[in-house]
Amino acid sequence: MGNIKLRPVADPAARSTMPLRLLCALTLGSLLTACTVGPDFKQPAVPDTQTYTHHTTPLTSATAPGLLGNAQQVKPGLPVSSEWWRSFESNALNKLIDDALKASPTMASAQATLRQAQENYASKAGSTLYPQANLGIGAERQRFNPSSQGQTDAPTTFSLYSTSVDVSYQLDLVGGNRRALESLAAQAEYQQYQLEGAQLTLAGNIATSAITDARLAGQIQATEAMLKSMEQQLLLTQGRVRLGQAAADEVLTLKTQVEQTRALLPPLHKQREQNKNLMAVLSGQTPGSAILPDFTLAQFRLPAELPLTLPSELVRRRPDIRASEALVHAANADYGVAVANMYPQLNLSASMGSQALSTDALFGSNSSVWNLIGQLTQPLFNPGLPAAKRAALAGFDAATANYKNVVLDALRNVSDTLYAVENDAQALAALASADVAAEGSLQSTQKKHILGSASTLDILVAQQQAEQTKVDLIAAQAQRLADTAALYQSMGGGL
Q1: CATH assignment of 38-130+174-343+384-490, given 3.90.228.20, 1.20.1110.10, 1.20.1600.10, 1.10.260.40?
Q2: What does the pLDDT read at residue 306?
């Protein structure tokens, strides 16, 4: 800071403003010359790997006949839409997610938390970056007794009126206040990424719930169709028994199978209703009065192209990674605050006002009063300050380690979804072929049974194979949709 020279001021009015002018000069000087202690934040290095899997995954998935069996091509560098769920081409899903993003309490909470962090920064900035000014107006009634000083005069009672403007400012000599603001700004940034992560998670959970609803609906339909077929077979067998062409044991065996198949329906209905309750809560509705669509797998389309970003780009776009990076930034700034607390602190305060025995004279030229105070404080013995510095450094180390762990989990997440896209497509292709074969085998066995060349046991075996294959096929079709949603999420969405 340069030398400040004070000149005599002849004008009483100018003299009365001298403390404020001096305070402003000192404030400006501090802003021009102050330094900032502690290390500056450096963005963590990006991963040095270029791949997510330990072996090369195919860029084009397997194909299968029938619903949701089309191939998917993974295209590196393909941008992710901010509304990635629209790639499924389901109007019902689009509306459900759009409404949920507006009505979900989870989103409202995340938005309010972000506003709180932003206002905390504004509050700290307002109290540290600028001088604080307060207006004071006072009136007091006093009685002065001269005898207390050995005088014989009679006691005097009078009123004293005062008004003043008090200004104070802490010179940020070593940047402690700036580091504190840096920390609050990083925490607000953290909440911003938390909000983006909440949006991504909410959309993903609703998409997964919708796909689950479609899967359960398909499995219920397939089980009911199989049950109907078994009941018809039971009626035919009962007729054959009456004609003496079949034994009564065959009826009992078929009836057992019918009831076992019927018992599969209540758990499926239970799962679907519980899943709908989840969808209702996710969309901000009460389960008892929620208005929700009934999804089917036929309402969805499987995107033909899937995005894939490099690991170095992933860490700059996934909300959870960016949020963790913001916490590292905040911890780095907190360490700077702890270092700054070990340096001298300079506080300035000034007061300018008037003081008089009557309100008429309060603003007269001879009633002005002022003062200027400067206080320099240097910690001499405070064992807590070094400990606070070490604690802040440990906090930075913990935040850094957590950031690395979040990055590793993100890379694992992408790797898992890529393997799922590849292997689940192959599983669907195999199950689609198995379903065709199982249906053909069942129809052939039923014809043989009518002609008397196949037993009831043969019918049961064929029905069980067809039923299980159909249910597994529906689950595999839904899984391909879920894998796609998971890959969009692992890429960080289009936020």
Answers
A1: 1.20.1600.10
A2: 94
